Amino acid sequence: MVIVLATAKLGEDALEAGREALTAMIEASRAEKGCVEYAYALDILDPTLLRITEKWVDDAALAAHFQTPHMAAFQKALAGLDVSIQQVLKFEADEGSPLM
């Protein structure tokens, strides 16, 4: 499994201005073959920090994700917003097991 963890800083009004694009990206990505999880969350201590979590079955699924029309549309939508990617990290992991 491939896990992508990323963070982005949101400028003033960027969340509301980009909500439609963010929602469309989540819905389309979750429908992709090979997507295990795709989510965005605001940091409780810093509401201008968006945390992105993605899980993919393998590198091929992640690579295919970057080639989708909804990724192109999403990047175009973000270009007009005050959003700054801070970090993007990729990890390889097993399927995990229950902790509790």
Which key features would you list for this structure?
globular; Alpha-Beta Plaits; alpha+beta; 100 residues; 3 helices; 4-stranded antiparallel β-sheet
Would you give an account of this structure?
It is a single chain. This protein is α+β, with helices and mostly antiparallel strands. It has one domain (2-90): Alpha-Beta Plaits, CATH 3.30.70. It is 36% helix and 35% strand. It contains 3 helices and 4 strands. It has helices at residues 14-30, 59-66, 69-79; strands spanning 2-10, 35-42, 49-56, 83-92. It has a 4-stranded antiparallel sheet with strand order 2-3-1-4. A hairpin with a 6-residue loop joins β2 (35-42) and β3. The longest helix is centred in the first third of the chain and has 17 residues, at 14-30.
Determine the number of helices (DSSP H or I, runs of at least 4 residues): 3
Order of helix and strand elements from N to C terminus = EHEEHHE
Overall average residue pLDDT: 96
Portion of residues within helices: 25-40%
> How many domains in all?
1
The largest sheet is:
4 strands, antiparallel
Bin the strand percentage.
35-45%
How are strands sequenced across the largest beta sheet? 2-3-1-4
Number of strands: 4
CATH architecture: 2-Layer Sandwich
The shape, in one word, is globular
Structural class: alpha+beta
What gyration radius follows from the Cα positions, in whole Å? 14 Å
Low-confidence stretches are: none
User: What is the fold named in CATH at topology level?
Assistant: Alpha-Beta Plaits
Give the CATH level 1 class: Alpha Beta
| Termini Cα gap | 21 Å
